[in-house]
Amino acid sequence: MVFDPGERCPKCGGELRLIGEDVAEIVEYVKAKLKVLELARLKKSCRDCGTVVQPAAPTRPIDRGIAGAGLLAHILVSKFDDHLPLYRQAEIFARLGIDIPRSTLIDWCGAAVETVRPIAERIKRDVMTADRLHGDDTPIQVLDPSRRKRDPDLRAVKEGRIWVYVRDDRPWAGTSPPAAAYWFSPDHKEEHPHAQLKDFHGILQADAYGGFQKLYEPGLDGTPRIREAACWAHLRRDFHDVWTSTGSPLAKEALDRIGRLYDIEGEITGTSAENRLAVRQARSRPEAEAFRAWCDLHLPQLPGKQDLAKAIRYALRRWPSFALFLDDGRVAIDNNPAERAIRPVAVGRKNYLFAGSDGGGENLADIMTIIETAKLNGVEPEAYLTDLLGRIKDHMINRLDELLPWNWSPLRHAEPKAA
User: Fold this and answer.
1) Res. 414: pLDDT tops 60
2) 70, 69, 109: which is closest to 86 by C-alpha?
3) What span, in angstroms and rounded, lies between the C-alpha atoms of 233 and 227?
4) Following DSSP, what letter does each residue of 173-221 receive, concatenated?
5) CA Rg, the chain, in Å?
6) Distance of CA 139 to CAs 150, 266, 350, Å?
7) How much is the pTM?
């Protein structure tokens, strides 16, 4: 936009000449638009032999569906990344001039996730080839009308679970691409993480959920298939809760001691595993051993039922798991990558309240796998899903790994020729 004072001087009427300009920027919002694309496939016949030819119809993201790849990607990202429930999206579409019932949006979401599910499955398989993972889980409400049929006093929802396992080697400059794999289960039984981790061998950093404990047991050869790494951030929270509620000087001292370990970690994050190990052996190990000695000293002096005593016992009981990071530069000091990955599920849970069924929980897990892995790799999820939905059905099945977020590059369409 150009503002021109004109050609003549407002004071004397003389001719004005350009001597410069001042440029300023204003960020404006351009209202979103929905458009209907008409796809005309010309049908032609040969004048000589009568053969009729017509281009094949382009593949649609949803068979016989009218929703384009860009619209489906926008709906998925709006719900599962921006946490915008489908009924609110329906209201927004109505303001744009199109009535899309919530039931239709639900069907589109399910069909779109089914289209891209092969990518989610490949991400999950790839994550399980890692030798170190972060794990976490969170509850999610699942609609289950059968409960009320069995007992009218029961709520028509049950508590399912979303599990996440994160591979993130960036803190020690590893080369494996970061990824987050999500699973849904209809309950919190230990059989679910056992099944999810059946092919995993290595170190798992997670909370103290009892269902993980059997995974850490030694095998027939005397060594465990999975080793446990405990989370210092979780331990720190226990002491922090005591300090904020009671002002305990001992809890404050524990926080200060753990804080010194984190100060060292802040200095070595992003460096090689070899450097992290060397620094931890020289500086972190003395701090950790001093903290353990401090715990041994003060525990007998505290009432056994005090929260501070419980926090200290938690540290001492699992000390080998807390100390594992000192002997391996690849291991993190805490489980924060998994806690960050599970947080979007918790935020979404507050907005869309519950999954409509176990199948809806599976859809949630698979689309979160794709969206969050894309974000971890610096890929804008809506652009990625738009491209993925538009081309996955035509992509060679044995080359689907090309579409994984860390391998992906958008398909470049030829520009239409000017008339």
Assistant:
1) no
2) 109
3) 19
4) T--SPPEEEEEEESS--THHHHHHTTT--EEEE----GGGGGGGSB-TT
5) 29
6) 23, 32, 12
7) 0.90
